[in-house]
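Below is the record:
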Amino acid sequence: MFSVLSHAAGLLAVATSFRVLDVGPPRTGTQTLKVALEAYGFRALHTSYNYTARLPWCDYLFGGGPLEPALRTLDGYDAAMDEPFHLVYREVMEAFPQSKFVLPVTDPDAWYDNVAAAGKELAVDLDEAKSAHRILSGFDYLAAMTLQRPSMRTCSGCINWGCDFLNLTGKPDRARCVASYRQHIDKVQATIPSDRLLLMDFSNGWAPLSHFLGQPIPDRPFPYIDDFFGN
């Protein structure tokens, strides 16, 4: 998986201004961080708004695909977040040596409840769309693509953590999902140097993020955004 990293990094080093990767899983404030980074003038790639950007990453992670096309999705972006970007911090660290990483601070049990509720709502929307034979749009498209591509089924809904929040294989195992989230936090903190990693508590507002990125504090309230499920 890492054999082409150096080659890909060389190709992309001058092609992108990439600076920040969100290493939190879905439903940990990815939309909020996107809007916050955009307040600094950053261009942020969120894969629930630009779903096709997931495809090469999922093929790389779970389909045996090449890394270079995945890295090219970051070309022209300063930041990226949402599934499966939280899984590729090692690749991004090597490809972009100046990049930094943000890990939102979220209680794992609260995270489980949040994602389970969102996944249930999304699964209902997909069933209704299929029964009505209507054209899928917006977030429904995420579930539709997940059903169609094997690598996407593994890549979405935290299935790769032993969860299944889209209910494609059964009810998610709470204990296993929460344990996987805790293990992810531990791995991130053990892998990323402390000077490149911000543990972000959104309740602290702009100051920690601005200091970490060397940016002035924006003259506006800190955002709290959820376009998809409103919670």
Notes: The first strand starts at residue 20 and ends at 22.
